[in-house]
Specification:
By secondary structure, this protein is of the alpha/beta class. It has one domain: Glycosidases (TIM Barrel), CATH 3.20.20.80. Helix content is 43%, strand content 17%. It has an 8-stranded parallel β-barrel with strand order 1-2-3-4-5-6-8-9, surrounded by 6 helices. Helix 11 runs parallel beside helix 12. The protein binds ligand G3I. The site of ligand G3I has 8 residues, from loops.
Length: 338
């Protein structure tokens, strides 16, 4: 048991452990190093963490062939010493190409070699320590059907995904390999496309094991919980594990007690959907505290998307998650999934 310091009693991670589901947060390097309340709250409440930025290609391989593992090593050490599972995010993402990669003409063979070296090095270093990798992040275009344009796609071709998963599997055959994306949480054109893409990859024998649904939503506007369950279940029917990987529910400013209550309802609904879905093995929020969230910098006029406020006080959303995880597993018909 992990001692709770707030009025809500049992820490979320103990409830999640009892339900056999992961609960986690994206972790940033700077507060992990410098903010003891951040470390203590993570250790108390979460049984899983994911790298918010420090495992992205531009951070971990800032110059060709030169790796900077400092942030990722610190994260892996923190996970190990607090008995948490670690998700790796992300090996291939159109947004994380550093200058040395973008500002050069590559042949297909050369870029495949870069991909293979990068994945072998990073996955190899954390072999046995990262339970799940977001191998490819956000490959699908949101506006038009098909894969989005990116260096990887344009130079290697659409089979860059197959190669990335194959390289990752070779580097750590026991790690679960995920495809991760946004706007695919509900039943819609993009999630249909994601379904068809993963089904085809599985049919080709590509080692893909899971699908991550990001869930960056507005506190009062998100897919209906039954739609989230149906969508996750159709991926489960393909034999894939599902996870909610980047949940946050941003609130339009000013943040009021009423909006925080509405947000809490949404958090409760989404956690209950995850518990109900057949093969959803974890829910991770994209950050721990509103103090360090990416939201205000990226969405003007929005804030307060997470479970803990800027002073690490649990918000109504935290209490709603606590309640969702406390409901008797047997009466809900869902047993441990991990
Ligand atoms: O650390 C530097 C700081 O030194 C500098 O002064 C400041 C000025 O711009 O930038 C800081 O770096 C920022 C970094 O976040 C750390 O805060 C980068 O500019 C900023 O681009 C970076 O944004 C990250 C974003 O991905 C792009 O990599 C966010 O933190 C991170 O939350 C976000 O995460 C993504 C997931 O990986 C994929 N899904 C969507 C999600 C949200 O966009």
């Amino acid at each position: 048991m992990h001692a709770a310091t707030n009025a809500t009693g049992t820490p979320l991670r103990d409830l999640a452990d009892a339900r056999g589901i992961g609960i986690g947060a994206a972790v940033a390097t700077r507060p992990l190093a410098g903010d003891s309340a951040y470390r203590a709250t993570l250790a108390r409440e979460m049984n899983m963490i994911v790298a918010e930025n420090c495992m992205k290609l531009h951070q971990i391989q800032p110059r060709e062939g030169q790796y900077d593992f400092a942030g990722a090593d610190a994260l892996a050490a923190f996970a190990a010493s607090n008995n948490m599972r670690l998700r790796g995010h992300t090996l291939v993402w159109h947004q994380s190409a550093p200058g040395w990669l973008k500002d050069r003409q590559w042949s297909r063979a050369e870029l495949l070699n870069v991909l293979s070296q990068h994945i072998a090095t990073v996955v190899g270093r954390y072999k046995g320590r990262v339970c799940c990798w977001d191998v490819v992040n956000e490959a699908l275009d949101d506006k038009i059907p098909g894969l989005r344009t990116s260096l990887w796609h344009d130079v290697i071709g659409p089979d860059y995904l197959d190669h990335a998963f194959t390289f990752a599997h070779a580097a750590d055959p026991r790690a679960k390999l995920f495809y991760n994306d946004y706007c695919t949480e509900g039943l819609n054109r993009k999630s249909d496309e994601q379904y068809a893409m993963l089904k085809a990859m599985l049919a080709r024998g590509v080692p893909v094991h899971g699908v991550g649904f990001q869930c960056h939503f507005v506190f009062d506007s998100y897919p209906a919980p039954e739609t989230l369950v149906s969508n996750m279940n159709r991926f489960a029917d393909l034999g894939l594990e599902t996870q909610i990987t980047e949940l946050d529910l941003r609130i339009s400013t000013p943040v009021t007690p009423e909006k925080l209550e509405r947000q809490a309802r949404a958090y409760g609904e989404i956690f209950r959907a995850a518990l109900e879905a057949r093969n959803c093995t974890a829910v991770l929020t994209w950050g721990l505290t509103d103090k360090y969230s990416w939201v205000p910098a990226f969405f003007k006029g929005f804030d307060a998307g997470l479970l803990f406020d800027k002073d690490y006080e649990p918000k109504p959303a935290h209490d709603a998650v606590h309640q969702a995880l406390s409901i008797d597993a047997v009466s809900r018909g869902s047993g441990p999934k991990l």
